[in-house]
Amino acid sequence: MNEFTQMVDNLIKARKALPNEIAVLAVRFTKDRFRDQAWLDKTRKPWASRKQRREGGKRKSQTLLVNTGRLKRSIRKVKVSQEEVVIGTDVPYAEILNNGGKITKVATVKSFTKKAHTRKAHSRTRKGTVESVSAQTVKSHTVKGHRRKMNLTIPQRQFIGSSAVLANDIENLTLNRFEKAMNP
Known about the structure:
Organism: Flavobacterium shii
Helix content: 25-40%
Strand order of the largest sheet: 1-2
Protein name: Phage virion morphogenesis protein
Number of strands: 12
Shape: elongated
Radius of gyration: 25 Å
InterPro entries: Phage_virion_morphogenesis (IPR006522)
Strand content: 25-35%
Distance between the termini: 15 Å
Pfam family, one: Phage_tail_S
Mean pLDDT: 88
C-alpha cells in the first residue's frame, strides 16, 4: 500500500510541474526558429530570404528577424495553468512578421533638422534613367513635415504557432514524466 501511495504522490507532483516544463519547451522551440531561420511543422519551411544584404557596423546582423534581438528576447510564458499554456510576445510588430501581410498606410513625418554630412558618390534611377551622383558635402537643413505613402508586403516568417513537431515533443515529455513518476 505504501508503494501505491508514493506512486500517486509522484504522479500528482509530475502533473503540477508539467505545465511549466511544457511552457519552457515551447519557448525554446520558438527561439530555435530564429537560429534555424525556418518554421518546423510536419516539414521544415525555410523563411523567405532578404532582398538586399544589410550594410552597416557590427550591430547589423544578417540573421532574419534579428537586428537588436528585442523580438527573440521578448518571447516568454504568458500564461501557465493546469488547463493551458500560452507563450507569446508583447512586441507590436511580431504579428505582421509571424503571419506576413501587406501594409498600406499613410505615415505622417514630423519636421526635423538634418545634420551636415558628406554624401558618397552613387548612382540612382529616376524616371527610368540611371544617373550618377558625385560625392559632395550637404549643409545642415530643415526638412518640412510631410505625409508618406507606405505600400509594403511583409513575407511570412513564422516563428510561433501550432506545430506537429512541438506537439510530438510535448507528448514525449508528458509520457516521460509520468513514466518516471510511476517507476521511481
